[in-house]
Amino acid sequence: MAEVLVVADDLTGANATAADFASAGLRAATASAATGAEVVTDMASRFDVLVATTDSRHSPPAEAAALVRSAVRAGWPARLVCNRIDTTLRGNVGATTEALAAEVRALTGSRVVVLCAPAHPTAGRHTIGGTQLLDGRRLEETEVARDARTPMRTSDVLEILRQQTDLAAHLVPLAAVTGPAPELVDHIASALDAGVDVLVADATTEEHLERVATGAVAAAEGRDLVWVTSDPGPSAVAMARALGLTRGVPGAPLLVVSGSATELTRKQLQQLAAERAAVVHTVPVLEGSAVPDVDAAVAVLAAALDRAGADDIVVFATAVQDSDVRPTTAEDAVRISRELATAVRRALEEHPVDGLFTTGGDVTAAVLAELGSHGLEISEEVVPLAVAGTLVGGPWDGVHIATKGGLVGDVGTTVTCLDHLRRTVELDRRRVAAATSRTSHRSSPPRTKERDT
Fold this sequence. Notes:
The protein has helices spanning 11-23, 37-44, 61-75, 93-108, 157-162, 174-178, 181-193, 206-219, 234-242, 263-276, 294-307, 330-348, 361-370, 413-429; strands at residues 2-8, 28-32, 49-53, 78-84, 111-116, 125-128, 131-134, 137-138, 169-172, 198-201, 225-231, 254-258, 279-282, 313-317, 355-359, 375-383, 386-392, 400-404, 433-434. The chain is α/β, with parallel strands linked by helices. The protein folds into two domains: 2-242, Rossmann fold (3-Layer(aba) Sandwich); 254-429, Four-carbon acid sugar kinase, nucleotide binding domain (Molybdenum Cofactor Biosythetic Enzyme, Chain A, 3-Layer(aba) Sandwich). The strands form three sheets. It has a nine-stranded parallel sheet with strand order 9-10-5-11-4-1-3-2-19, sandwiched between helices. A seven-stranded mixed sheet has the order 13-14-12-15-18-17-16, sandwiched between helices. A three-stranded antiparallel sheet has the order 6-7-8, with no helix packed on it. It is elongated, with a radius of gyration of 27 Å. It starts with a strand and ends in a 19-residue tail after the last strand. Residues 433-453 have low confidence and may be disordered.
């Protein structure tokens, strides 16, 4: 079951809406409803938000309506269903709004009311007095009035709805939107009592959209009523928030594993702690030896990761201060890498990380082997001789990693690598996936991690 099902009339708008939901902390994907109902059904079970595209903006109204109803059925059930319309209201706004509401009503057996808030403030689309403005101008005064396929002759949102539907619509004016919250709730409740089918809301800011959605949910409390939206995307996200469907973007700390005792590495770790507030832990060792005490090391690292938040950097190093450097034999050097890698693997089995940075060639090789990785998929060279990529194979397949040798770079190189790793992780957290059905034909097996954008 998807949290949110969005039916969009074109791919560009679908992608933008999916990105909005991804930024709100939900895994979002776009899929072509034209490919077949089974694609929508399969995808809806795999993502928090599915945006199904019908490519029906310029279709006859009856055809567009049928495609919407089919997509809703294919993606059902969902906790919120949305009709993604054009920001300049071109296409089948009325027909698709009515079709979506009717299908949700048939599926739920409840009263369905549409929140139509067509403003997209960050894109310069505002609704004032029920009039849709593009960069401050009425639609009929802009180039969309000369659109070859769907020229806009009016910017009156209620009139645009009336052109294709008989749904009873009511305007929530800007004065009500910006007024005291209890009065906004009362305004919406009065409209619901009057039997309204569609609420058209004024808005010029993202906050206005949030206020309307929150007020709508409050006004519907105690009623057998299901909200759906018809908008370009921002109002749908606001409604999802009001219904408690969104969440903070999840995350885990970054982990630095250092098995290098070089003076340069120690200075790099000290610089990382000073500039990025990295929390540094020295690996516990066996008495009289430089070899890690695995059980003690696991306990220290597990506790450190357990305390760390998504924005933190945890450093686990064999040497940070000059006093940490101990004489080692060739046999000890092999054991140091092997035992450190074992401790890291055991800690990661219970405590996830979003990214891994390793320094020291022997330690990097030992960590990769211990994590069951077949190797690295290299994305780029961050600085000369320091690379970034993802683990390939094994239980940690797809985890982001950056790595370098113990004598690579200058004092600030580790900071640079961790900054790169952080940016990559943040982008991945918000990635919008566009995937196909598991049942569709593929030329090669699917990857463990979704990587399409």
